[in-house]
């Protein structure tokens, strides 16, 4: 068996920052801290912090007053920030700067009198946070069919934004439909889909024709990881999204001479290496590192945490 290992893969700069932020919070304050939702959408990462004593919550009301609360990489709405303030909770914001950029754009367009078409997945933490910035000025859509159902009048001041972890191809189809229906619709100066999402999708798209099977390391609630699996399936290849080697089924490899392995932007490298070790041990796999693009992006820790450090 041959294994092609996609590069880039795994942690992006925003995930690295969020995890480093939580690790530093634990170092400074101890492990009796809280995180609003999952710090990143990955079971391995969340379980690791849970084992250290961190508590993940779905409501600010679950956090005792005067506690430490970390906001996840996906961002939160102003309502959540206000709730934390009212409960005298000390907050540290680990929101990815690229998500913060979308929040800022939403505020800017809403304040300027635009109605915003947000392209994204209903219920995703990032979408909930972004819509919370201007709930009366944002309409969420996901498909070109939903564009067709929009009924804004001619001359309406419209702008569109996107969730950062979308499929580039699928988002492109929705954007083209929007521009066809509303030619004067405004868009941000720079696209919202993050560099890491784009790069990981590009790597799979470029390499998938060489393989018989695609394995994506990542959790089921990870939007960008699901997109990688979908690229494999769209190319006509069996593709599976797994948290780790324990989910692998032997029948996947019966007709697979070449396997592509990648990892979503919130999946740690340790789960990739465990899978590689398994394939080497069980199938004498030979590994090829395929570098499609190099990344050097890094985000600093939140300013409130840097102030504590100094």
Automatic annotation (TrEMBL):
<keyword id="KW-0004">4Fe-4S</keyword>
<feature type="binding site">
    <location>
        <position position="194"/>
    </location>
    <ligand>
        <name>[4Fe-4S] cluster</name>
    </ligand>
</feature>
<feature type="binding site">
    <location>
        <position position="223"/>
    </location>
    <ligand>
        <name>isopentenyl diphosphate</name>
    </ligand>
</feature>
<keyword id="KW-0411">Iron-sulfur</keyword>
<feature type="binding site">
    <location>
        <position position="223"/>
    </location>
    <ligand>
        <name>dimethylallyl diphosphate</name>
    </ligand>
</feature>
<dbReference type="GO" id="GO:0051745">
    <property type="term" value="F:4-hydroxy-3-methylbut-2-enyl diphosphate reductase activity"/>
</dbReference>
<feature type="active site" description="Proton donor">
    <location>
        <position position="126"/>
    </location>
</feature>
<dbReference type="GO" id="GO:0016114">
    <property type="term" value="P:terpenoid biosynthetic process"/>
</dbReference>
<feature type="binding site">
    <location>
        <position position="74"/>
    </location>
    <ligand>
        <name>isopentenyl diphosphate</name>
    </ligand>
</feature>
<dbReference type="GO" id="GO:0050992">
    <property type="term" value="P:dimethylallyl diphosphate biosynthetic process"/>
</dbReference>
<feature type="binding site">
    <location>
        <position position="222"/>
    </location>
    <ligand>
        <name>dimethylallyl diphosphate</name>
    </ligand>
</feature>
<dbReference type="InterPro" id="IPR003451">
    <property type="entry name" value="LytB/IspH"/>
</dbReference>
<comment type="function">
    <text>Catalyzes the conversion of 1-hydroxy-2-methyl-2-(E)-butenyl 4-diphosphate (HMBPP) into a mixture of isopentenyl diphosphate (IPP) and dimethylallyl diphosphate (DMAPP). Acts in the terminal step of the DOXP/MEP pathway for isoprenoid precursor biosynthesis.</text>
</comment>
<feature type="binding site">
    <location>
        <position position="124"/>
    </location>
    <ligand>
        <name>(2E)-4-hydroxy-3-methylbut-2-enyl diphosphate</name>
    </ligand>
</feature>
<dbReference type="GO" id="GO:0051539">
    <property type="term" value="F:4 iron, 4 sulfur cluster binding"/>
</dbReference>
<feature type="binding site">
    <location>
        <position position="266"/>
    </location>
    <ligand>
        <name>dimethylallyl diphosphate</name>
    </ligand>
</feature>
<keyword id="KW-0414">Isoprene biosynthesis</keyword>
<comment type="pathway">
    <text>Isoprenoid biosynthesis; isopentenyl diphosphate biosynthesis via DXP pathway; isopentenyl diphosphate from 1-deoxy-D-xylulose 5-phosphate: step 6/6.</text>
</comment>
<dbReference type="GO" id="GO:0046872">
    <property type="term" value="F:metal ion binding"/>
</dbReference>
<feature type="binding site">
    <location>
        <position position="224"/>
    </location>
    <ligand>
        <name>isopentenyl diphosphate</name>
    </ligand>
</feature>
<feature type="binding site">
    <location>
        <position position="124"/>
    </location>
    <ligand>
        <name>isopentenyl diphosphate</name>
    </ligand>
</feature>
<keyword id="KW-0479">Metal-binding</keyword>
<keyword id="KW-0560">Oxidoreductase</keyword>
<feature type="binding site">
    <location>
        <position position="224"/>
    </location>
    <ligand>
        <name>(2E)-4-hydroxy-3-methylbut-2-enyl diphosphate</name>
    </ligand>
</feature>
<feature type="binding site">
    <location>
        <position position="222"/>
    </location>
    <ligand>
        <name>isopentenyl diphosphate</name>
    </ligand>
</feature>
<feature type="binding site">
    <location>
        <position position="223"/>
    </location>
    <ligand>
        <name>(2E)-4-hydroxy-3-methylbut-2-enyl diphosphate</name>
    </ligand>
</feature>
<feature type="binding site">
    <location>
        <position position="12"/>
    </location>
    <ligand>
        <name>[4Fe-4S] cluster</name>
    </ligand>
</feature>
<feature type="binding site">
    <location>
        <position position="41"/>
    </location>
    <ligand>
        <name>isopentenyl diphosphate</name>
    </ligand>
</feature>
<feature type="binding site">
    <location>
        <position position="266"/>
    </location>
    <ligand>
        <name>(2E)-4-hydroxy-3-methylbut-2-enyl diphosphate</name>
    </ligand>
</feature>
<feature type="binding site">
    <location>
        <position position="41"/>
    </location>
    <ligand>
        <name>dimethylallyl diphosphate</name>
    </ligand>
</feature>
<feature type="binding site">
    <location>
        <position position="41"/>
    </location>
    <ligand>
        <name>(2E)-4-hydroxy-3-methylbut-2-enyl diphosphate</name>
    </ligand>
</feature>
<feature type="binding site">
    <location>
        <position position="164"/>
    </location>
    <ligand>
        <name>(2E)-4-hydroxy-3-methylbut-2-enyl diphosphate</name>
    </ligand>
</feature>
<protein>
    <recommendedName>
        <fullName>4-hydroxy-3-methylbut-2-enyl diphosphate reductase</fullName>
        <ecNumber>1.17.7.4</ecNumber>
    </recommendedName>
</protein>
<dbReference type="GO" id="GO:0019288">
    <property type="term" value="P:isopentenyl diphosphate biosynthetic process, methylerythritol 4-phosphate pathway"/>
</dbReference>
<feature type="binding site">
    <location>
        <position position="266"/>
    </location>
    <ligand>
        <name>isopentenyl diphosphate</name>
    </ligand>
</feature>
<feature type="binding site">
    <location>
        <position position="222"/>
    </location>
    <ligand>
        <name>(2E)-4-hydroxy-3-methylbut-2-enyl diphosphate</name>
    </ligand>
</feature>
<dbReference type="Pfam" id="PF02401">
    <property type="entry name" value="LYTB"/>
</dbReference>
<comment type="pathway">
    <text>Isoprenoid biosynthesis; dimethylallyl diphosphate biosynthesis; dimethylallyl diphosphate from (2E)-4-hydroxy-3-methylbutenyl diphosphate: step 1/1.</text>
</comment>
<feature type="binding site">
    <location>
        <position position="74"/>
    </location>
    <ligand>
        <name>dimethylallyl diphosphate</name>
    </ligand>
</feature>
<feature type="binding site">
    <location>
        <position position="224"/>
    </location>
    <ligand>
        <name>dimethylallyl diphosphate</name>
    </ligand>
</feature>
<comment type="similarity">
    <text>Belongs to the IspH family.</text>
</comment>
<feature type="binding site">
    <location>
        <position position="96"/>
    </location>
    <ligand>
        <name>[4Fe-4S] cluster</name>
    </ligand>
</feature>
């Amino acid at each position: 068996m041959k294994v092609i290992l996609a590069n880039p893969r795994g942690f992006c700069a925003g995930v690295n920052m969020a995890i480093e932020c939580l690790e530093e919070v634990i170092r400074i304050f101890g492990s009796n801290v809280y995180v609003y939702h999952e710090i990143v959408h990955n079971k391995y990462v969340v379980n690791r912090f849970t084992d250290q004593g961190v508590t993940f919550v779905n409501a600010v009301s679950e956090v005792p007053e005067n506690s430490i609360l970390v906001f996840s990489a996906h961002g939160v709405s102003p309502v959540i920030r206000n709730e934390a303030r009212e409960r005298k909770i000390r907050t540290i914001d680990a929101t990815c700067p690229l998500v913060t950029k979308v929040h800022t754009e939403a505020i800017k367009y809403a304040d300027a009198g635009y109605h915003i078409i947000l392209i994204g997945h209903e219920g995703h933490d990032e979408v909930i946070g972004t819509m919370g910035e201007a709930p009366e000025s944002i309409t969420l859509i996901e498909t070109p069919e939903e564009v067709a159902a929009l009924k804004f009048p001619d001359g309406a001041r419209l702008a569109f934004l996107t969730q950062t972890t979308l499929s580039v191809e699928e988002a492109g189809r929705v954007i083209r439909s929007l521009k066809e229906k509303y030619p004067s619709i405004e868009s941000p100066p720079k696209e919202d889909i993050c560099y890491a999402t784009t790069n990981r999708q590009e790597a799979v798209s470029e390499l998938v024709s060489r393989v018989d099977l695609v394995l994506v390391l990542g959790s089921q609630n990870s939007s960008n990881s699901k997109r990688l699996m979908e690229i494999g399936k769209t190319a006509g290849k069996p593709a599976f999204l797994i948290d780790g080697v324990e989910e692998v089924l032997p029948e996947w490899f019966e007709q697979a001479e070449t396997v592509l392995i990648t990892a979503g932007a919130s999946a740690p490298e340790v789960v990739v290496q465990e899978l590689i070790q398994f394939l080497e041990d069980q199938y004498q796999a030979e590994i090829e590192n395929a570098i499609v693009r190099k990344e050097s992006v890094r985000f600093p820790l939140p300013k409130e945490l840097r102030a504590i450090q100094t």
